[in-house]
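Example record used in the benchmark description.
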Amino acid sequence: MGPIGNNKMPPRLTALLTVAARMHPRLCLMMFLQFMIWGIWAVTLGSYLGLTLEFSGAQIGAIYGTTAIASILSPLLIGWIADRYFPAQKIFGCLHLAGAAALYLASTLSTFNAFYAVLLVYALCYMPTLSLANTICFRVMTDTGSQFPRVRVFGTIGWIVAGLTVGVLGVETTRHPLQYAALVSLALSMYSLCLPSTPAAVQEGGFSWRGALGLDAITTVCQGPRLTVFVCSGLISIPLAFYYNFANLFLNEIGMEAAAAKMTLGQISEAIFMLFMPFMFRRAGVKAMLTIGMLAWVLRYGLFAWGAGGDVVAVLYLGIILHGVCYDFFFVTGQVYMDRAAPEHLRASMQSVMTLITYGLGMLIGAYVSGFIVDFYTALDGTRDWQSIWAVPAVFALLIVIAFVLLFHERDVENV
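Model output (structure tokens):
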């Protein structure tokens, strides 16, 4: 294939590729800021809550669970609105503006009830923006399997920069990460004015409770092999919560210096593997990629349990580095697969359904289960049995892998 201006290329395709080339730098910066916000506050929040505010494991789990509750309550409605009424980038900007105010307010609070309530408000603003960011990308891309990973990798880079910044500044156990995240959220709300226009895909039709509740999208998702991917995505998010909620606290308690900065090794590996995804889509196929991604979770938690039982620092670093395979090969693959499977008028809604089942139901259950497990293996003197704690999600993830391999048949799907 020649350059974009080659006369052999259809004029319409030439125009589409030219537009895509102009859009991608803007999309890259959007992804960078989107995940930088989350990376600044989420990684170290457990340490701040546990070591500074002295919240219990159950309270920490409940606070992390606010993102899961928000993923259940808000993305479907927001996705439906973006599909039918308002440009996605405008909704995106308004949500980040409100989120900036909520994050700053949370940084001023020190009691559990108040902190929980405000962070829930923030989560209701932030979580829908994850699927909206995907929707903005997918609507202007001509080949999502190839183009999306190359844009999404900048979100990983944003998370890396966030972790390094917080680690280098030495503010992991302070309120400052919440304040820094508020500033970045404000910046992204302003930047949304520069994003490509993504008008509603459906221009006709009145209000429908069925559409607003996402029932059309859920019905579509629950057909054929999509159902297996949907259910396993939710189940694997339960052990995922153990890592997001307690890995930083675990590493700090066992004496790892600048744990947040070292955890960015996981995002570095995520960026590297993200660049290999277009090749993997063509060569390995959906089932292989999803299976490898879930097996990586089993291995990661096994390594953490091993490292917690003795002075074996290398296995802890390996467990962190596995994040690239864990996240890219399962979650990003699932997002691209669902976009390819979605009817045009349900693309935003189906991304919202994936957010609901992963960051919503799965992470909500995982938040409370992980908090309970941490408290269960915590002695009266506050000492935690991390080896037993990490063994629980390792076994659970292994069971999910077995179920997925048995139930998902690649011959039934069209490769993305």
